[in-house]
Amino acid sequence: MRVEMRVDGEPAAAEIDRPGESLLTTLRDRLGRYGTKNACEQGECGSCTVLLDGDPVCACLVATAQCEGREVKTVVGAVPRPVRDAFIACGAVQCGFCTPGLLVSVADLLARDGDPNDVQIREALAGNLCRCTGYEKIIDAVHAAAELMSDGTPAPTRAHWITTPVVPSAANDATEAAP
Amino acid sequence: MTAPLRAALFHRPAELDEALRLLAAHPEAVPVAGGTDLMVAVNYRHTRPAAMLDLTRLAELREWSDEGDAIRIGSGVPYTRIIAELATVLPGLAAAARTVGSPQIRNRGTLGGNLATASPAGDGHPPLLATGADIEIASTAGTRTVPVTAFFTGPKRSVLAPGELITAVTVPKAAGPQQFLKVGTRNAMVIAVCSLAVALDRDARRLGTGIGSAGPTPLTAPDADLIELPWNRPDLFNDALAAEFGRRVAAAARPIDDVRGTAAYRRHALAVCAARALRRVWTAAHGTESTR
């Protein structure tokens, strides 16, 4: 069965051979899009979070055949540059396995709420498990990204070293994003 | 290499009538909406559906409507929308919906799927029991309405027959304060150790209760609902009354020991939750009177 959808803004087609094949399997094993990570396959960890018609969902719980004509955005197409830069600058990435899912969830949160507080951030990210960071730096990164996306000025958070990013190009892009 | 899947093995009806005809013709096709239960079973090879029937394209299942004294919620409305759009009229159900899984799960999961799975721990069930909701079930033979109290028949069992689809749930609008309390190890991504919904109807002077994850099915607590409350003198409400309500709710539960908790703990937690819930709804309903 052929399923046609859009993935990260481009048309994509997959030939699936069982009705229960998940979008996660199709993205990784048929379309070679490895940005979306496979961890628990039961909707528990959020590593496979993608936007389906704009809403964050676990790709492991979506049947690919349900996606005919739908718009899928993975970490590659869903995440504004400042969100990625803030994660790097704040040390919100350690082993990196949860990172693509978290980035998609953060992108969705900031699209809905430009200046979320800690409680709102924790609730929005409750479906994304990270076993490395303890979440504090991830929350710092969300605040930093919110600040970068609003006016390009670094946030006065505990992540004071956002002002001296570890990746030089990140600093340039962040500056360019300013109005 | 397995043969490519024939299109007929994944049905994607655009209208309810077509879905019901397909289900009658292909009883082996497993209906799927949000997939938050079914796809876990598929991914873990607990089930391997020969065919599936997609419900996400049925626009009529994805709408809710105001029916005057009740809200009719299409079975395919995801929890996220119940929280965003119905919290004022159905506060108990919205509170329960807010405790379901995570944002990702709430964007996909539906009340219809919760009912069809019929888990004793389903978060949507206690508020439906507390408010006396009705389940609308359709097949090619027609439509029938089942009170939620008669819907569950055992663990993961219900009156839903082959060829039938849950199309809507009609929930009476709140006529007073409502509460939903859920016990678990964290606030997100938790299957309830036990849960409790309480609805107070100020005008009818009636209590409604729904118990989750503490019996073979979600349960009501008829004895607890009949507790004498000081409706004419709300200031006479006291902790002893709340504790008695808690005891009656705990007595109505039929819990077992399992991986999430013991039967004894569940009864204890339900008694605490019930007393707390009753205090909260009573205070919310009579706060102004009792301070006079």
From TrEMBL, chain A:
Gene3D superfamilies reported for this sequence: 3.10.20.30, [2Fe-2S]-binding domain
One GO MF term: metal ion binding
Pfam families linked to this entry: Fer2, Fer2_2
PANTHER family according to UniProt: OXIDOREDUCTASE WITH IRON-SULFUR SUBUNIT, XANTHINE DEHYDROGENASE IRON-SULFUR-BINDING SUBUNIT XDHC-RELATED
Domain spans labelled 2Fe-2S ferredoxin-type: 1-78
Organism (species): Glycomyces algeriensis
InterPro entries tied to this protein: 2Fe-2S-bd (IPR002888), 2Fe-2S-bd_dom_sf (IPR036884), 2Fe-2S_ferredoxin-like_sf (IPR036010), 2Fe-2S_ferredoxin-type (IPR001041), 2Fe2S_fd_BS (IPR006058), Beta-grasp_dom_sf (IPR012675), Diverse_Oxidoreductases (IPR051452)
UniProt KW keywords: 2Fe-2S, Iron, Iron-sulfur, Metal-binding, Oxidoreductase
UniProt signal peptide: none
Ranges in a coiled coil: none
Domain of life, source organism: Bacteria
Protein name: Carbon-monoxide dehydrogenase small subunit
TrEMBL record, chain B:
Pfam families referenced in this protein's UniProt entry, alphabetically: CO_deh_flav_C, FAD_binding_5
Molecular function as annotated in GO: FAD binding; oxidoreductase activity
Keyword Flavoprotein on entry: yes
Keywords, comma-separated and alphabetical: FAD, Flavoprotein, Oxidoreductase
Domain FAD-binding PCMH-type stretches: 2-176
Keyword Flavoprotein: yes
Name listed for the protein in its UniProt record: Carbon-monoxide dehydrogenase medium subunit
Organism: Glycomyces algeriensis
